[in-house]
Amino acid sequence: MRIYQLSDCHLQVDEEMPRANLIRALALIEGKRDGDVLLLTGDLVCDPSIEIYSQFKAIVQAHTSIDRVFAIAGNHDNLTMMKSVFSGSRIQVKNHVHLNDDLSLCFVDSSQKPLSNMPLGAGRVSSKALSSLKKITREHQSIVVIHHPVVNLGAKWFTRIGIENNLDVIKAIHPQTLAILSGHAHGFFKQPIKNRGKIIPLIVSPATSYGFEHTNPDYEKNTNIGIMVYDLNPAPNEEIAVKKTGTNNRQIEYTLSETVITLNH
To answer: How deeply is 125 buried, as exposed, middle or buried, from its count of CB atoms within 10 A (0-12, 13-18, 19+)?
Structure first.
């Protein structure tokens, strides 16, 4: 199974470059004709409006034939507006979906405003979403999809705009989780998350709009953009691949590998 991830598209009504980059990314994916799932991991637009979300929807509908398209909100998004505009289209906004009998996607909304005085761009996961995350990842082998990285990483300024209650998020994720996929950083990162004796990889996608220069402690953009590709395969060792479930059913365990595709100008 192949999953593509686009993040931080920052579509704007009066800016041509984010639109062109989004279309270029979708065209690249469509040309490969091997995608099973497309993830749109937040900050889809810069300034939420019915008009710009309608334009975003039209671009995705026109430039990809992938049936299973899932979107989450980022700090720039309006989740209620997204759900309204995307309703009835191929772009689905959900909490949880089964990829097959053995593997699920768990979508977590980190676009809520922090309760404390954090800089613009920071997020928070609600108590209800935390409970759902805990339940889903306990009951299903899952890939967690969330806009903000669950740990602070990158440039010094960027570490201040993470998830206010990120430790609660990590605690809610069951250690059988296959990976955590996020965006927000406008750059690729891969970091191990220690969770009750297990290591869960956190994989952060570059943006399609513009990059952040994380070597600079102060805010700076760059032109490094890209998308992520993930390949899911059953674990190669049969003894590892089949997990005892306490019933007569046998659950296949999966491995995930990632590739960054750069879209630099």
So the answer is: buried
pLDDT beyond 60 at 243: no
Q: Can you tell me the distance from the alpha carbon of 27 to that of 29, in angstroms, rounded to the nearest whole number? A: 5
- Residue 136 three-state SS: helix
What is the rounded distance in angstroms from the CA atom of residue 41 to the CA atom of residue 25?
14
Contacts of 118 (CB under 8 A, 6+ apart): 160, 161, 164
Q: How many CB atoms lie within 10 A of CB 196?
A: 11
Number of H helices, E strands in the chain: 6, 16
Is the pLDDT confidence value at 247 over 80? no
CATH number at residue 142: 3.60.21.10
pLDDT for residue 120: 96
**What is the number of structural domains in the chain?**
1
Using alpha carbons, list the distances in angstroms from residue 102 to 1, 141, 177, 234: 13, 7, 12, 10
Closest CA to 189 of 142, 152, 146, 140: 152
Q: Which residue range(s) make up the domain with 166? A: 2-262
pTM above 0.90, yes or no: yes
Tokens at 75, concatenated: 């700090």
Q: 235 pLDDT band (50/70/90 cuts)?
A: confident
Both structure tokens of 216: 């600079």
CB 5 within 8 A of CB 37: no
